[in-house]
Amino acid sequence: MFAASILNIFPLQDSTGVLVFIVTFLLIYWSTRRHPGIPPGPGRWPIIGNLGSLAGPDKLKVFRDLRLKYGDVFALYFGSELTVILNGYEAIKDAFLKQGRQFSFRPENDFVRRSVISNLIFGNGPECKAKRVCIMNAFRDLCFTRNGVVLEQIVHDELDFLIEIITKNAKAFCPRKTMSMSFASVIFNILHGKRPERGEKRFQWYMDTLDQGFEVFLRSQVRHYCFPWLDKLPGDLLRLQYAKDVSVSVSEFFEEIFKEREAASLPGSRDCLLDFFLSEDSPVARDEIWKCHHDLMGAGSETSATTMNWMILLLALYPDVQAKLYAEITRKIGKELPAISDRSKIPYVEAVILETLRIGSIVPLGVPHFVKEDVSFRGFYIPNGTTIIANVTSVHHDPSVFPDPFAFRPERFLDESGRVLQASEQVIPFSMGQRSCIGESIARIELFLYVTRIVQNVEFRLPAGCKRPTLNGVFGITYRPEDYNVDIAKRN
């Protein structure tokens, strides 16, 4: 009726222009309208959605400002994809724990399905659950039998090598890549039954490929949401061909390792995760094992390495905390190798780790969740197919929970005597609910052993005459500090 009325008003020769106007108007209307009943958010632009609202060098500050304006639950459009952002501990808890059945899925779209990522991290359904159970059982058997002595030995062997490397540095150095290689060696050992050879070029190539893959995945995902038709154009604009090429190279890298392990291991052995995956009752198909290992290498190494990267920076910036940490370690265990059983003896170490995880917020927006049905949440309508993001930093940097949130104060996690660690459920670097990190227990033990052993042996100092580093981070799969240099002094 509207179109007919317009055409009656205008002469025939103007009808084409009017139709173009109507079609353009409707396209703009439909591409900028917000679903009725969804959480509030900024106005939506054609094609790019709310990407313009995220402009600015400090993305975490952008999310803080959006929370102040729209509340703990707000919605953004990445292109045409609706995404709901959860802020604050209670909102995240309500979704992932109280309504966990509805919020425990991972996004399902063509880009994720065509990427190198396995369905261990981004999968849904019984197959994914079976893999998680298998891995968790394997980690328990491999790392935590006999009070965790196997895991302790793996970590201490790696720390022997790491401390030897860093104490040889006569000049100030940036610890980022060194820490990444070290933690990657630990998870590689758990997965494959041995650490990579020193200076092994193929492993270095793999780590570089892993690091580059994170950045490519993030950029390509945003392009896919806004311009899904780009894969129809000439050129690898969505980097899908790149993902295929990487997939082939990485699968060949792991296949060499798998064949070597199969030839060397005894029938029925269960000495590394690969043995579990190669067993007859494994829920992982033979040609899918490499993808699981690829995911675990990335998730199991880079998060812990980034935590240590923040830790070293914070200890250098706060020498009083570093001195107290060293004094506590020396008083409780001296020069003895730290053991898992020592964690309760040195609550200050655990407090320093908690405070580092809180300030660093290593995975600031977590791994995306997804709803596969219409959901009612806190009075809002969340339609089927919506991506859900938990803004972890909104919890960790909330001044109402952690006063002066950007100050490094491990004492906030200790009682008045400073001797008893007070657990804080509101430090959630590993997320919560059914899709929380399956390697959390291993990561916490790794960090305890790394921090204790490294501080026993070296002191970190800011180089004289250099500009003081900031706590600004680089936003990506993990949130790491900007590259910085430190001097290392070997302790007597």
From TrEMBL:
<dbReference type="GO" id="GO:0005789">
    <property type="term" value="C:endoplasmic reticulum membrane"/>
</dbReference>
<feature type="binding site" description="axial binding residue">
    <location>
        <position position="437"/>
    </location>
    <ligand>
        <name>heme</name>
    </ligand>
</feature>
<keyword id="KW-0408">Iron</keyword>
<dbReference type="GO" id="GO:0005506">
    <property type="term" value="F:iron ion binding"/>
</dbReference>
<keyword id="KW-0256">Endoplasmic reticulum</keyword>
<dbReference type="InterPro" id="IPR017972">
    <property type="entry name" value="Cyt_P450_CS"/>
</dbReference>
<dbReference type="GO" id="GO:0016705">
    <property type="term" value="F:oxidoreductase activity, acting on paired donors, with incorporation or reduction of molecular oxygen"/>
</dbReference>
<keyword id="KW-0812">Transmembrane</keyword>
<keyword id="KW-0492">Microsome</keyword>
<keyword id="KW-0479">Metal-binding</keyword>
<keyword id="KW-0503">Monooxygenase</keyword>
<keyword id="KW-1133">Transmembrane helix</keyword>
<comment type="similarity">
    <text>Belongs to the cytochrome P450 family.</text>
</comment>
<dbReference type="InterPro" id="IPR050182">
    <property type="entry name" value="Cytochrome_P450_fam2"/>
</dbReference>
<dbReference type="InterPro" id="IPR001128">
    <property type="entry name" value="Cyt_P450"/>
</dbReference>
<dbReference type="InterPro" id="IPR002401">
    <property type="entry name" value="Cyt_P450_E_grp-I"/>
</dbReference>
<dbReference type="GO" id="GO:0004497">
    <property type="term" value="F:monooxygenase activity"/>
</dbReference>
<keyword id="KW-0472">Membrane</keyword>
<feature type="transmembrane region" description="Helical">
    <location>
        <begin position="12"/>
        <end position="30"/>
    </location>
</feature>
<keyword id="KW-0349">Heme</keyword>
<keyword id="KW-0560">Oxidoreductase</keyword>
<dbReference type="InterPro" id="IPR036396">
    <property type="entry name" value="Cyt_P450_sf"/>
</dbReference>
<dbReference type="GO" id="GO:0020037">
    <property type="term" value="F:heme binding"/>
</dbReference>
<dbReference type="Pfam" id="PF00067">
    <property type="entry name" value="p450"/>
</dbReference>
<protein>
    <recommendedName>
        <fullName>Cytochrome P450</fullName>
    </recommendedName>
</protein>
